[in-house]
Amino acid sequence: MRVDFLQARWAEFLAALQAAARADAELAAFSTNADCCFLLVAGEHAAEFSFSSPLVVSETRSGKQSFALEAPTAVWEKFFSSPPPAPYHGIYAMKMRVPEFKVSGSELALAQNMHLVRRVLEIGRDLANGVSASPARKNAPVKAGTREPIRGGYVWVELEGRPNRIYYEEAGAGHDLLCLHTAGSDARQFYKLLNDAGLGAEWRMLAFDLPWHGKSLPPEGAAIGDWELTTERYVAAIEAVIAALGLQRPVLLGSSMAGQICLEMALRWGERLGGVIACEASERIVGRTVPWTRHPQVNDATFVPEWVHGLIAPQSPPERAREVWWEYSQGGYGVFWGDIRFYGREWDARERVGRIDTKQCPVIMLTGEYDYSCTPEISRATAAKIPGAQFEVMPGIGHFPMAENPALFLEYLRPALASLREKL
User: Fold this and answer.
1) 269 in a domain, yes or no?
2) Structure pTM?
3) What does each C-alpha distance from 114 to 39, 306, 313, 346 come to in angstroms?
């Protein structure tokens, strides 16, 4: 049962949080050389977090805080519950979707220190609910010497008149399933799916890194930081990879920006596809341009993964959530920014999605309950405009279903693939 700290035990909670936070290895690594002081205001209660050496959490207001996170007690009650309901699970989720929540002071300082804020409040949530800050691993360790069935390689394709060396991975045998990664990430997001023996018995699964992403280097002669994704560029890359790898009527699977391009491919390439499974997809997303992802005073190796971490459902296995964080921390300079320009600005299919012929190319849309970027309501509205499209909400899942909780995602993916396979 959750500790009722917001009423009678606030001071006791803060003392316990300070002790737990000081003992946390991840927060210790994050706070090396940190200079951050912020205030959390919950109705009449307040707490100052000062990341000096050591961390100090107290009710005393020093006046040194550079920003404050403010909301009524009822909002923080939801945030600190376990599991918190969407969209009360993260700071940026509440900032976008909860009107009563606000950030006062320097939002630049919040962006610079989001990794500290997220982790210390995450520890607070665990503490408030009697959960160990470092839960025991639930999965049995993989035996040393195990060889995975995934095979990797490179294929050269021509894009915009330049040769591009594209990295791809594949596993399984059967009908082609082409997996498309999210903004700023790469094919590693799909390694759990590619290792699934059940899928591998029926599907030849492939995942590739877009140019500039993962193991696909920028084309020779391209200026560093010059990447910007557009619909035409995206379609051309997918078409080139399909042709180079000799795929036959592949089913496309993608999430977020990849879910959007699945809809575009269904419209343009419908007769040449076996169907699309568009996750976290919509006809149009607004308000998703994030200036802090390419800001000279913000470390994108910590901010970008923190931004996407807030899109993950809080129930997702910690190991998987950390993998998503780590993958995003390795993105190339300006790549996430360039992808989001497509996702949140250039992409607009409001006048076109209704023309998708689902008799020719079946469309299945799946959206996670905790996705505050492309919410279930947004995806449902898009699906309603596509005659014959199927739509389902995935409880307990966020924006990265195949990576953040692959075991749970498979419960939705398997029947979706089975229904498409019947029509091939």
Assistant:
1) yes
2) 0.95
3) 13, 7, 17, 28
